[in-house]
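ugh ok fine here u go
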Amino acid sequence: MNTFEEGRVILLDKPLEWTSFDAVRKVRNLIRIKKVGHAGTLDPLATGLLIICTGKFTKRINEYMAREKEYTGTITIGAITPTYDLESEPQDFKPFEHITLQQMQEAAAQLTGPIMQVPPAHSAIKVGGKRVYELARKGKEVKLEPRPVTISVFELTKIELPVISFRVVCTTGTYIRSLANDFGAILGCGAYLSSLCRTRIGEFTLEQSISISQFEADVLKEREINQNIKG
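structure:
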């Protein structure tokens, strides 16, 4: 097995409320090398698969980032939030009881295939050298241009209004928060992303991942074995 300096790919199950950089920092501190990076940000309120690369494998980060992604999660209809998720409070409540299954399926169909998607105002995209979420927090409005993305699957897996469970398969650069917001706009009652889990990146799956606590235990065990060999 390669050492961390030589390069490894670590598949982590990112916990809720951790930033992706929190996970990188934890790995960096555990393995005691600086050359560590992740292949695709997960928002703090999202869980699931996070690819961490160490050593020479950091050169492959862009390759992993470009791969197809799969997510599961829930969308709550009948309100919107400024961040398109639960990082901010729901507002503009509207009735949703009249929305039919057919309307929901048609809305999902409209958002399937090659589409143009506007990123959330609260995102890490840079405009004029500044991240747009920083500008949004200062109350400055930033007009973001739509970007081409492809949603190959947008499946509604369970409906218990106002909550809709879903599975999405999409290209890199897709914002599931924007997808939820656009879904609500088509329905006319608003919607926001209420939970999200990344289940796959390319051929890597969540089932192959380990928790951060398990990774920590594995690193400590490996370190102990190496010390015994040297001793």
